[in-house]
What does this fold into?
Amino acid sequence: MNKAEIVSVVAEKTGLTKKDTEITINEFINAIQEELCKKDGKVQLIGFGTFEARNRKSRIGRNPQKPGETVEIPASKAPVFKAGKAFKDAVNK
It folds into this structure.
């Protein structure tokens, strides 16, 4: 399912227009992104899951174009989603 399909389903279930639904979904995504950009930002949706940014250490990797060559992969922050218990249970039914 892609974003357009999600917009269609949510619009149909809520009775909102597709345009209003798309604006709402975009702002929801933006709110999560803005929170994760903050230091120690975290978004917890009870019953669904938690979004957070985790720090990744720098590490040594291999250059895929030249397998014998190593390259340093710099430290970065990575967005992570951890599903909540109710969400996991619903998927496993």
